[in-house]
Amino acid sequence: MHLEDYYCTDGNRIRFTRQQASDFAKRIAGDFNPIHNVDAKRFCVPGDLLFAVALQHYGLSEKMRVIFSGMVGDGVGLEFPEAGDGAITVRDSHGKSCLDLQRSGATTTDTKSLCGIIRCYVQFSGQAFPHILVPLMAEHGLMINPERPLIIYESMSIELDSLQFEAPSLELTEARLEIHGKRGDTHLRFAVKADGRVVGRGAKSMVLSGLRPYVPDQIEELVNDYMARKNGFLAQA
Length: 237
What we know:
The protein has 237 residues and is of the alpha+beta class. Helix content is 31%, strand content 36%. It has five helices and twelve strands. It has a ten-stranded antiparallel β-sheet with strand order 1-2-4-5-6-3-8-11-10-9. A two-stranded antiparallel sheet has the order 7-12. A hairpin with a 2-residue loop joins β10 and β11.
């Protein structure tokens, strides 16, 4: 994976075109959320791409927590400050916070380690819909708006026992949906595995907005449309 294919540098800023962000979502993360389509009216850069670039920029630490504090559109210049102790805030050219990173413990910049974690994490993350979220919504009898399906990536964290491992993979260990009126907070927990053992653990949080009563036919249509977009892309790839 050449992460440089999915962003542009402009002096000390990093920007993403619609095509780059959309390609990353589909080719690397397997994420076919329409908000990442090139022609989307409410287009935004995938949070997983922001996480991947931050990881490349600052390295992989034993403990990391990322909070996505603002949606990033195409062409928006992001400034990645020099690494320091404690929290790091990535801002756009207007000073608006887009990503907050907290890290501690040992850190590695080994390319193989970074690519291994990036690839396995974003592929796990990209499978949230429909494989994880649809059963959760059915369990609670609620669903997102099928006309404007909006799932907002809120935060992720990872804690590794060490940085000495190869070919990591992620395995879901818990999926939970908390309902607050028309808002749903989704919490996914996972184990990081390598060499046949657990080497770490982590969590991902998302927000589901505009919840309404669950209608099986509408969800089925939403999933079918999603899978049709995915299969059509893979057929042309």
